[in-house]
Description:
Number of helices of chain B: 14
Strand order of the largest sheet of chain A: 2-1-6-5-4-3
Structural class of chain A: alpha+beta
Oligomer: heterodimer
Structural class of chain B: alpha+beta
Largest sheet of chain B: 9 strands, antiparallel
Helix content of chain A: 10-25%
Number of strands of chain B: 22
Radius of gyration of chain A: 16 Å
Shape of chain B: globular
Helix content of chain B: 25-40%
Mean pLDDT of chain A: 95
Bound molecules: FE2/S2 (inorganic) cluster, fe (ii) ion
CATH superfamily of the largest domain in chain B: Naphthalene 1,2-dioxygenase Alpha Subunit, Chain A, domain 1
Distance between the termini of chain B: 20 Å
Largest interface: A-B, 31 and 36 residues
Radius of gyration of chain B: 23 Å
Low-confidence stretches of chain B: none
Strand order of the largest sheet of chain B: 13-19-18-17-16-15-14-22-21
Largest sheet of chain A: 6 strands, mixed
Number of domains of chain B: 2
Strand content of chain B: 25-35%
CATH architecture of the largest domain in chain B: Alpha-Beta Complex
Distance between the termini of chain A: 22 Å
Order of helices and strands of chain A: HHEEHEEEE
Mean pLDDT of chain B: 96
Amino acid sequence: MTIPATTSLPVTLAEAMEFAWTEADLLDHAIYDEWLAQWTADALYIVPIEPGTTDFENSLNYAYDDHGMRKKRVERLLNGQSISASPVALTVRSLSRFRLLQADEASCELRCAQIVTEYRRGRERTYTGDVTYRLVRGPTGLQIARKVVWLINSTEALGGIGYIL
Amino acid sequence: MTSLAELSTNPDDLIRKDRVRTPLYTDPAIFDAEMTKIFRNTWVWVAHVSEIANNGDFKMAQVGLEPVIVVRDRKGKVHVHLNRCRHRGATLCEVRKGKTSSLVCPYHGWGYSLDGKLRGVPYENGYDETTLDRNELSLKSLRVEEYNGLIFATFRDDIEPLADFLGPAKKWIDLFMKQGGGFPVKVLGEHKFRFPGNWKIQLENTTDAYHFPLVHKSFLTAVDKETEQQLDMLNNGGFVEDLGNGHSVMVMIPELIDLDDNLEAPIPEKFADLAKELVAEGYSDTEVRRIVRAAGGSGFNINLFPNLACSMAFFRVLQPVSVNETEIRHIAIGMDGGPAAANRARIRLHEFFQGPMGFGSPDDAEVWDRVQHGAQGGDEMWIMLNRGFPKEENLPDGRARSDVSAETGMRAAYDQWKRMMTV
Ligand code: FES
Ligand SMILES: [Fe+2]
């Protein structure tokens, strides 16, 4: 990423999109160190259950990860101890329909559609949802302050998801 | 397949005390018979009271494959109605949960009060008393009974009361509910997931401590040292006990049987922050100790035949879908009116292990999937349930007890299965 660290211009759709696509690419290609570095120290990665939830902290989610939990999740995908992640699912995610909901010099709110296709042990499954990002400008470029994955079927019975959505 | 025929002529060809044969997971005829002979003939768990706390609250549920509505009427009485209109049989409700004052069918508008009585029929002059007797067209209601917040329903009017069915399990349910930490237990949400396998694979798992260190290795790696030691369940002196009628209890952490005991013990490191938060909120030292001790859940699983487990810190409900498909719900529970910090701690613990993205459940789902996949080969092979059988001791009232890794709980469940399936 070559986004200037100090700029007085608001974050643009192009910048935000490029950032989100990079994140998708890192996850699909299991480049987890770089992925972990994309987040601010106090960022949260959330996969909620109830549509429209606002109080994630006091609600039951599928995932509510701070930095420590994200690291553990990565560790689980790599250490070969988890039978549901050995072999780990291959994923391809497609992000589109991007829209900036808000933007200023320091941050932006990005929303997009995400379709993740998973392949593992002869089975292919798809998870579709909206993703909302809160991105902030850090010293080296954009960083994720919060990412929420809103699965369209979050209140249904899902399959085991042994990877990061 | 001749398996179901074998079951009625010579059940021992299919199921014995210490082993069962593969068609129990794969034969659609056996599955159909289970839905009738088991799920239509016993007490089936449908809800926790907190899910329908107020008058007018309802939730959808199932008894076997049959859709039902669990609803609290205007007077506070709980009903379980078949979710099926008496006109042409459409489901009345397709909303998972909510609040309502009546049940109106979307097809032709027949309206029912919450106690199930048919109240309104649009354009009623198309009928006269000989063709439409309202009193005969109430919703079909099941018999409902409750024990310590657990609501069960049955199609049978003539089976034993719920309390008798639960028997020795009642004591354990009372102990389990102590994780309210002095507050009533309340449902906080649920994780639902599916696996492509037979429901009995899941039933077995709730009383299978043997798999824990291996299948949940990646979870044990991710927790703190203290928790890891506590979850070293095969070396903690736990036990499994047959509770009768297919029920069993598996004690994995004996020091967490009674959460009112040992309140003076030091507060575990992982709950230090929670304790601080509670002190800051003004809770007394005793309250703090009680809440913190309850926050981590109980040290045992109760398996209630056929569909509910009260499992350490949550309810685990299994829902058969077809012979090789099962839905599982992990229902998170917390303290009703209790400190938000304690409920948050419980929610985070639940998210850590349970559900489709937890550090535990996907690994469980994977091995259950493999059991079903393996069942596609070798129909004649036995599935072994004999672990801990020779060393089983008999309690004074004749019930069996063995070490924590024994398959005593599975044997108890299959005993009941056999009793119900071979009548
Ligand atoms: S099916 Fe319900 S009113 Fe006709
Ligand atoms: Fe397990």
